[in-house]
Each structure stands twice: as structure tokens, then as C-alpha cells.
Amino acid sequence: MTGFDKDLPNKLRLEEKIKLHHLEQLMQHFQCHKPDDIILHKDCGYFTSSQVEKRKPGCMNQQEFNEAIAKVLGTEEYRDYIEKLFTKLDTSCDGYVDWNEFCTYLLLLYRENDYIRTKKEIPFLQEPKIRHVVPNRQEPTTKILVTDSPCRYITVSKEGAFSVWTPNMQLDRSYDITANDKVESTGTKRRFKKWVTDAIYMNNCNKIVVGTSSRELRFYDISTSHFFEEFHLFGMSDVPYCFDYWYDKANLNSESLLVCGLDSGTLGLFYFKKPVTQLFETPFKNEPGALKVFIQDLKSQHSKWVRYTCLPALHSEMIRQVKYLPENGAIISSSSCPNSSLLISDINRFKQTYVFKSPKGVECFDYNKSINILVSGSANHNVQLWNPYMTSKPIAILRGHNTGVIAVALHKALLQIFSLSRDAVIKVWDLKEHTCLQTIAMKFPSSIHGRVPEHGQFPMCLLTSPNHNCLLVTCNDYIGQLSLGNTTKNQLTTPVTHDTQLCCALYNQFFKQVVTGCDSSTIAVWDIEAGSKAIVFSNAHGNEEITCMKFDATWRRLLTGARNGTIKVWNFQNGHNLHKLEPVADADVTGLLALNDRKVILAVGWSRLITLYDDSDPDNMYVTADLSWRGGQLHKDDISAMDHCPPNLLATASFDGIVYIWKLETEKLLMKIIHQNDGNNLQPIPVDVVMFLKYRALKFRDAATLISSVSGNFHWWNIATESIEFGRCLMAENIGDSVVGMCTSTDDQILVTADSSGFIKVFDIQDYCMTKSQHLVTEPPRTLHSWKGHEGTVVSVEYINHDAGIFILSASVDKTAKLWTICGDYIGTFGQKHPWDLKSPKTWGNKDISQINEDEIKRDLDTTSDHSLEVSQTSQNKDFDFPPSHSSPFPDLQQSESIRTSTALPGHPENDQSSVPAKTRQDSVNNGNTEDVIMNNGYMSKETLHAMYVKEKNLTFTCEQNKALRPFLGAKVLCDLQRRRQDRCDRRQQYGDINTKQMARFGKICTPFQVLSMPGTAEETVLMEESSRILTKFENDVMTV
């Protein structure tokens, strides 16, 4: 529910209420709309002139649009909502809406809702694990078998090598079943007489059956840690090419069935009467090794244990796959024959045979009785869905593969189909919608550079058990494992805003919404009053990370820049891409600015250039770059930050410590500021952020009006004279941290900063550096509040002046964007399950906090209040503390490192600005009010204690959940994460081992003409953001608590 939807708590949203017949009626209103011209009267002194403004047919103003909607729906209950909706639709800001704008909004909204729904159903959220099967000796894997108790994966190679794998894809052991066979030597290369065609696991008797091209079956006992061959059935008339095995799970020793598909098109049936007891007759023999059984002796010597029969000539070609259906005694078989591609045959030949025909035959199939769907894959690149009882034509044909389909699998619980093609591409299909949900190109070494790899007969295996839910795929002598759904380590109870780290969070004061962007190129719009998601447009820049976001002056358009230098302009209300700006280099965009009065968009970044784009034509989709900056391209290093001071000042800062101040009107350089290192160190000092104090610049000429952040130190500059430095102070929580986010109130009295340790601070700068002093000011401004808001670097903060109060918006690389009060009270995380209400503090905080029993809180507060009164009488001038023997409702606050601090009280000289004591209130104490807690010559009310209780509960909840954020991908990945973290804090250099140009690009085209195109899908990569330094510090804090 968006901010506009809160007016409709018990009704359908307008977008949900509109049906097809409503759209037809509304289209007629737009087509028949012919408004009267507008007559403008102009007073010229002696006479009044009239000017006629022509109205374009089909364009409605707000009143006309409201009346048309009310007439179509037959109600005016949406009047207030329509007024706000009209602002969304008016993308051109001309005060009129036409049919195209209305349709574009609806189509993009419905399309994004569909994409969000399907994205939740994407099964593969992690990178696949790929292992090299060394025992295969460069031969492909024919079959993957899965055993239980314990669970093991067994790969059988073409030449007969068994490899046993653990569920974690670690090679346990291997066997060569052809080691004792005689071989022929041709030069230096060994040639085996037979190849493995298929293998099947007989679960009830712990045996594996292997078929070979020598027309034989080999039975291996795997009940012990060492596999050994027990029986060798030879002399079959044809080559057994595929198997299926069935047994009664209620009675393991009852008759079981082994189905063999032969290369002659015949089905061979082996009925084992007591498979657990014995498979064949075992006479006494002196020689060691497997018991050899001639197939012609089954009727005479082994009839007690097994009987063999066959269904001849079902197919005219080799049978490629078989499946036994015990519920109706039928067998499904497939072949490459067009006339008998797929057959459902009665095992007793009593019922009719169902024949399914496909032009190029059927390579593979799968069937599920509960959903009554038969899925097949063929060499014509298609996946076909069949009704088992309707053979004339398939229900649906799923197209998308570029090569032949060699394996398919049905997932009953997810209602999804997995298909594998010869080019090692896996596609996930929705069984209901018949659409592709996800495409993954397996990065097998043999499939890169466009080569078509070699596959075995059965290259895919789907596991659907609760403990082992994954997809196994083989290619040549490699095996890959793709986990289905979220693993336990990813299912964190801590809410996150995006699935990857955030780059920025902005507040739109016109629509009262929050916009967040993340490294997965996803942009989300949130309602600030409830924290609910309004709209998401994914793949904004393909697979490129978003590095910069900015609103224009009208608050209607959103500008975004990416790591590859691309810049786009959006209507952030519906995700419509208005403009694409020409990139000047394959480098990060770090600053964007829309100058509406000049109709120009300005961009800076690691290209070291100040680039201009013409913004005068709203219909121009592709805008070329203009590098004719009249002041010259002076930056010699990457531009890291930019800020604008209306009307005519622009500041650009680079990694070499230089800040240029430009005059926008003439594009000429006004002054140059150089940051120098103390001492003899000549290394450049990167400038992290620059910010104008805009209110000061207009009102106070002699005050510091520019702040530059360098390695956690703030430099305060007066640029009205000759770039005089008024102050220099440390503003980060720890030495070595960087302040990468800061903002001020509209009157420049409050400064909010955020650093790389996750701390957010609020300072009073009303009287700070207002005039030039004799010495450089080194003391920081007065700290009002300070708290640790995130476990990672806070990349942006926003000061929000809302009707409900003053709030702070923060975004971090820990995948969260959070909302706080100006005092540091935690309101919520955008993306959490339960919404909040800004006007109701009872809804703030985590879900568990809102459900605290009120009686328990009251009891804790009463106990605290009574004891606090005693403490205040004995220690009037000491910090508030609980003795060890007393039970505090928030013990973490006493012993742990101070997470949240504020300014010192007057009259306490021992509290200087270097150590910030606990926050207190200075109000007069009401006479006779025994419910107030006396402390530090002030008082703390029960409401304040309640707020502290809630915040400390939040702190405990966060501490418990952050234990699950530990990286689990190994030391190598942890080192890489440390490198990436350092790059972002200091230099934001590009990743060293990732070539973004070689990544698959799946973009989403959001134009009115291509709005109905299917969204592309891309692989999801799990990124971890926590560095070991923060984890170590966090563990120390927890141990202290």
C-alpha cells in the first residue's frame, strides 16, 4: 500500500478496480474529449486584450480527468486519490493528461507487479557450485545417482568410473568398475570394449545396476563403504540404453520391477520376486568375483527369484528414456522417431497405447501424476507440455532455448519446469503462466567461448527432499549443483531493503516518498509514512551497479548514474525511462544535477570530465554528451563528489584533494581549494564529500559556507573571500573512518553525518564557524545525538522535515535503509514485514518490540523508577547507573559501549566535548510528582524510560541477529570483501577480478512502444558486505555486554 493508498483502507485500489470495460469507456472519453479554448485577458493600460490558447483534443486537466473517472466508475469515492494520481500521470508537467500517459502508467505498473511476483518465485538465488570430476579421465558423466542414509551423489562416467560426492560437493571416494576388465592397447591410448549407457539405484536393496554397450547388466552392492560387483547378467539380445526401477515402499521385499529400454525399440522387464533377500540364484562357486548369469538361463535356473519378459517393437528406433507408472500399470517411453515420439503403453497390453508425435522426436520427458502434466524436450529447441490423454497436440510449447533440449524436470511444489539445453543453459518455466522465470548459463570450462560441450545420456537430476533441495547438472567431466530457494544462512530474520548493498537513499518532499537504489541495479520507491513499497523497477542499468541518484527541481524526475557511465532519466512514479544520456567513458558516475532554468543536465564522475546534456526536448530519448565546458576540464584525477549552491555556484572535488568552485552562469573557475597532508607525506588526500551550506551562503557572507570531508575530517571554508579555512575537526567516530554522507537542515542549524563505521551523528552548527577567528577552529561542533545505526558503511543520510516531525533517513552497504527520529529513535527498516505509522510511536521499532506486553513494561518501569530515585539521592553529580544487584530493564545500556550519546548538561565541567555523556532532559520538576526520576539535576519521565526500554530491546534484537551476518564463503572471499570495502571508503576503485563487459546484460525497456515486452532475467549473485573489522568490534561489544 503506497502513501496514496492509505486513504483507501477498506477499498480496492483504483488500479485494481479498473477492468477492461472501464478502460474501453475511458478511452472513449479521451477520444471524444474536445475542450474549449482558453481565453486569456491581458491588461495593457488603456485597453484589455484577449489571447486565445488552443486546447489539444484528448488532453484533460485535473478536473476533467476526475469527472471522467467518476463517470466511468460510477462513484466519487476516489476523488482525493485521483488528485494525487493526476500528479503521477502528468509526466510532462504541463497540467494535462492524455490517453497515452494514462496507459503507459498502468502498463508499467502492471508489468512491474508481475515482475515482482515472478521474481519471488525464482528458484536459484545463489551461484552454482561447479566441481571437476577427476576420476572420469576427461570422459563425460553418463548418469547421476542419489543415495540416502547418508545422502551421497554418485556420478557414473562413460567409461565406468564411480565418483561419490557429499552434499557439499566434496569428493568422498571413487571406484573404477572396469579395472578388472581386459583392455586393448592401440599405441599409447587405452580403448575400453564397452561404454556405460545408463545406471539406476535400487533403493530397497542398496544396489546399483549399470548397463553397458556390451549388452550386459552389472549389479553392484553399495551397502558397505566399498562397492563391489555382485552379479553380471550378460547375453542380452540388444543394448540396454535406459532404466527405471520401482519397488513397494510399504513392503521392501515384495516384487519389484526393473524396466530396460533397448536400442531396438523393445522394452525389457525384470521382475525381482524378493529383491532384498536375493536377486538371482547363487550356486556354490570356487572362483572369486561376480556371479555371471546368462540371460537365457533365467527361466530354467533363476525362476525362483526373477522372471523376464519384454514388450517388443514399441518404437522403430532406440528408446531414449523410460518411466514406470505403478498407479495404472503403464510405461512411458520416448524415442527420436517422429511417428512414435512418446508412448504410454499398458504393461499387460490390455489397454490402448497413447501415441504422441513430434517432428524431431523426444529426447527427454518427465511426468507427475498429481498435476497430470507430461513435459517433453526435443531437438527442435522447444519444451512441450502434454495432456496425457490428449495426443493430438501439446497444451503449450515453451520456446527460448537456442539448442536442443536434452533434459527436463518437473517440480511439483513450485509448479515449475527445469530444462537443460546442449549449450549448458538452464531455463526455469512457470507451469501456470507458461513463461520463463529465470535463465542461467552454466559456466562450465568446456562451454565457454561459444563451444557446444559434450553431455552424457542423462545430464540432469532434480532433488526435492526437504534436506536436499537442489538441481544437479553434468557437462563433460564437470558437475554443478544449484541450490533451490534460500538457504538457511540467507534466511535472516533481520529485514533488508534490497538483496545487495545500497548506493543511495533519497527523499522526495513533494510526493512524500523514499527512493532507494542498490548494486543489483534495482530502484525501489517507498512510502515514508508506512514504510511500504510502492513500486520497483529492476534492471535499471542492466547488470551495472547504480552509483548515483538525484531528483530534479520539480521532484518528478529521477536521475541515475551507473558504474559503466550510463545515465538515465526516469519518471520514478511508474518506472518510465524518459531519457538515456550518452556515456562519455566506461567509468563511475558520481554526481548528477538537473538545471531546470537552463534546461541542462550536468554530470561528473571518474571520467574526470564535466559533461552537459541538453534537457530542452522532453521527447528526445537519446541525448548526446556535450564536453564544451567553457572553464576547461581541469581535473587531473577522478571526480569523487559534486554539490550545487543556488543560483550559480558549483563545487567539484576529486581524489587528488582538489576542489574547484565554478560559476555556473559563465562556466568559469571561481577558485581552487587544495587539501594538503600534515607533515612530509606528499600522497594526495581524496575528498569524500563536499557540501554547500546554502542558507548561510545567502544570508551570512562572512561565515563558513562550504564543507569538505577528507578521511573523517571536516574542513570549513569561507568562499566569499579567498577560500579562507575557518575550521578543521574530526567528525568521524574513530580515527581512520571516513564520513561519506552528510546533510543539513534547511536553515543550516543542524548537521547530520554518517561514517564508515555505521555511526550517525547530529550536530548543532548554528553558531559554528560563523566568523573568522584568530586561530583555526579544531574543536568539533556541539554533538546533540549520536548512535550506531548500521553494521556497515552508511553511504547517505537525508534530513526530512515531515508533517509528523523531523526524521533522518540513512542507507548503508548492509542492504538496509532505515528511518530514525532526530534523536536517534529507531522507527523501522524499509522492507520490513510490518508497516509503521509516523504519527504513532507505538508502531515504531521491530515487530517483536510492538508486541511487548504492556504489563511487563509497566512493571519494569515502576521498578526502575523506584530504584532510580534512590540512586539520584546518593549520586547527584554522577552518570545514571544501576548497581550490579539490581535488575535493570535495559542492562545492555549499562555495560556495553555507548551506542547513542548526546550533548553534555551545563554545570558539569567534567563532561567535555570529547566524551559525550548520556542524554538527559532539563525541565523543572513538578512538585509532588513521584513518578519522575531525579537525575543529573533534571528528570527523566516514564515516557522517556519507555522509549529507552524500546530502544534497548531494539539493540538486543539487532545484536542477536547480526551474529548471522558472518561471511560464510571462505577466507578468499572475505579478503576480496575487505578489498572492496576499502576501495569504497578511500578510493572507490573498480573491482579487479570482475569484467563487467563480459557479464550478460538483461535490460528492461520501459517505453510506451515496448512496454509489453517480457522482462529479461539474470543470475542472482549473493554479495556479503560485512568486513572482519566490524565483526571483530561487534563481538567485543557483545562479550562486554
UniProtKB/TrEMBL annotation:
InterPro entries the UniProt entry points to:
EF-hand-dom_pair (IPR011992), EF_Hand_1_Ca_BS (IPR018247), EF_hand_dom (IPR002048), WD-EF-hand_domain (IPR051242), WD40/YVTN_repeat-like_dom_sf (IPR015943), WD40_repeat_CS (IPR019775), WD40_repeat_dom_sf (IPR036322), WD40_rpt (IPR001680)
Annotated region (Disordered), positions in chain: 864-934
Q: Where are the WD repeats?
A: 398-439, 539-580, 632-672, 787-822
Entry's transmembrane regions: none
Q: Which domain of life is it from?
A: Eukaryota
State if Calcium is listed as a keyword.
yes
List the PROSITE patterns hit by this protein, alphabetically.
Answer: EF_HAND_1 (PS00018), EF_HAND_2 (PS50222), WD_REPEATS_1 (PS00678), WD_REPEATS_2 (PS50082), WD_REPEATS_REGION (PS50294)
Return the Polar residues bias intervals: 893-904, 912-930
Residue ranges of every copy of the EF-hand domain listed in the record: 77-112
Keyword Ribonucleoprotein attributed: no
Tell me the GO molecular function terms. Answer: calcium ion binding
Q: What is this protein called?
A: WD repeat-containing protein on Y chromosome-like isoform X2
Q: Which organism is it from?
A: Octopus sinensis (East Asian common octopus)
Highest classification ranks of the organism: Eukaryota, Metazoa, Spiralia, Lophotrochozoa, Mollusca
What gene is it encoded by?
Answer: LOC115212136
